[in-house]
Amino acid sequence: MTAVTIPGVDQAPTTHQRLLAWVREVAELTVPDQVVWVDGSEEEWTRLTDKLVEAGTFTRLDKKPNSFYAASDPNDVARVEERTYICSQDEADCGPTNNWMDPAEMKAVMTELYRGSMRGRTMYVIPFCMGPLDAENPMLGVEITDSEYVVVSMKIMTRMGTKALNRFVDADGTERDFVPALHSIGAPLEDGQADVAWPCSDTKYIVHFPEERLIWSFGSGYGGNALLGKKCYSLRIASVMGRDEGWLAEHMLILKLTSPENKVYFVAAAFPSACGKTNLAMLDPTIPGWKVETIGDDIAWMRFGKDGRIYAVNPENGFFGVAPGTDFHTNPNAMKTIAKGNSLFTNVALTDDGDIWWEGIGDAPEHLTSWKKQDWTPESTEKAAHPNSRYCTPIEQCDTKAPEWDDPNGVPISAIFFGGRRATTIPLVTESRSWQHGTFMGATLSSETTAAAVGQVGVVRRDPMAMLPFIGYHAGDYFKHWIETGKSADATKLPKIFYVNWFRRGDEKQFLWPGFGENSRVLKWAIERIEGKAAAVETPIGYVPTIDDLDLEGVEGDRADIEAALKVDVDEWKAELPLIEEWFDKIGDKLPTPLRDEFEALKQRLG
Ligand code: SAT
Ligand code: MN
């Protein structure tokens, strides 16, 4: 058989045999017009952003340097959980919380979808590294994509191009492993066919082959479906790596907290998508003397250090934050970061003078172009920005980034916070009784759904460790891995686990806790608990502060509301028990006994 000649396929700036073979194989299947090896240079960024402007995908923003607005296809705005699969060899390794299909069957289906799917387009090969490039074992990947939008987004979100490729082959010729991640928007162009601004397909698949450490994505250009270094690699595939190798890949922000006495603490926190991880990661504390610096806003890889403590690394290079609601009050540091430019904005609204706008950023101008590319005025009944519209901006230019953000050794974690969006039941903050109890809190975490995934918004669902859509294997095995992680460690060196809820509401549906910068008061209490300095009351659900145990000097917020935010309401908790039971039944036989025990103990304590 004669090999097809596709321009660029052999112009590979690497000798890595497995990579070369895979690129050729994909090119022969997808039949692009040409293959381009992405180098990550500024020239390349300029060339691709110019191309995206010309194609109508991007609008250059006059008011923000080197920044662009994009509006997606209205049917391609969020992660598609129904179309996301974990194709483990054995269905039992996938579990009840993921979709499964036999890997060979899925490959057969998708191979036919990929056949010729890049016709009329350029196939880009993006070598990337999740986490610092100078790590002893750099976590490498290659995304093949036919989307320029993906290439420029990956430049912000990952360390990519030549600097990543340089780590694929060691000085002695050893070829390193990498995660192959294949992406096609699934919109081939026939000769003479005009393109659209946001090409994608009605058929979407986001697929993981965990044993092979392989990702195949088809049909969507949107963030979590298409930027495969993020959720697909750094959570779903990495969680499987972590299970096999004894570490944790978690949906957590990482922040650095410095006390007035100059003591430094690192905190990781897991909240579901669109529940304020980015805001907490960049928090401006309202308590004098305390400082917060940012390490990451979405993903933490946590491994044991030589000293027995857990160290966290942020695998990402940028922030992919929810735009609506972001302003100088809720997240001043995100506002300052995007003001520097070099950012992409997807599905926000566009002002007439070439700036971006979204609900919550301030007064609406007289006229906007909405995310649906329609005229919008303050009288319009539809939202100008999609609720899951996003800014994509480099960590590098965030003023509050901690110097350790790029440290390959990571940072030692003192506290882990789990949290969700719950109008009732869950108090502002609860300290767990032990790692096992904290794992129970994480495993039973619940939250109202948000616009970050396609589907109904505002429905309470269990979202264990905020990882429901991201656990790459059986949730019961994942809980077991958490329990065993605790058992394998010196308990005095483990982070303390807390459960928070910034979203509890009062009788008038008002938020009981002012949130945002005031959340520093909860961080302070947690640190003081770790130091043995702050008081708490032992309740059936764990240790909870009284209003006097929190530093509330100068707090914006009503005292009665704050008391209500802290309340442990036994009746509300009793109503929660059947929901937890139902959830545990869904997990089935693989639910670790210690979690059943925790549940029985909670029932007992509630009486
Ligand atoms: O679209 S992403 O998956 O990257 C963002 C999120 O839902 O957390
Ligand atoms: Mn996320």
UniProtKB/TrEMBL annotation:
One of its GO terms (cellular component) is cytosol. Substrate binds at R79, Y222, G223, G224, S273, N388, S389, R390. Its EC number is 4.1.1.32. Binds 1 Mn(2+) ion per subunit. Its main location: cytoplasm. GTP binds at A274, C275, G276, K277, T278, N279, R390, R421, F516, G517, E518, N519. It catalyses: oxaloacetate + GTP = phosphoenolpyruvate + GDP + CO2. InterPro entries: PEP_carboxykin_GTP_CS (IPR018091), PEP_carboxykinase_C (IPR013035), PEP_carboxykinase_GTP (IPR008209), PEP_carboxykinase_GTP_C (IPR035077), PEP_carboxykinase_GTP_N (IPR035078), PEP_carboxykinase_N (IPR008210). GO terms for biological process: cellular response to glucose stimulus; gluconeogenesis; glycerol biosynthetic process from pyruvate; oxaloacetate metabolic process; propionate catabolic process; response to lipid; response to starvation. It is an enzyme of class 4 (lyase). Residues 247-605 form the Phosphoenolpyruvate carboxykinase C-terminal P-loop domain. Its cofactor is Mn(2+). Residues 22-243 form the Phosphoenolpyruvate carboxykinase GTP-utilising N-terminal domain. GO terms for molecular function: GTP binding; kinase activity; manganese ion binding; phosphoenolpyruvate carboxykinase (GTP) activity. Mn(2+) binds at K231, H251, D298. The active site is at C275. It is found in: Cytoplasm. It comes from the Bacteria. Keywords: Cytoplasm, Decarboxylase, Gluconeogenesis, GTP-binding, Kinase, Lyase, Manganese, Metal-binding, Nucleotide-binding, Pyruvate, Transferase. Catalyzes the conversion of oxaloacetate (OAA) to phosphoenolpyruvate (PEP), the rate-limiting step in the metabolic pathway that produces glucose from lactate and other precursors derived from the citric acid cycle. Belongs to the phosphoenolpyruvate carboxykinase [GTP] family. Monomer. NCBIfam families: PRK04210.1. This is Phosphoenolpyruvate carboxykinase [GTP]. It comes from Actinokineospora alba.
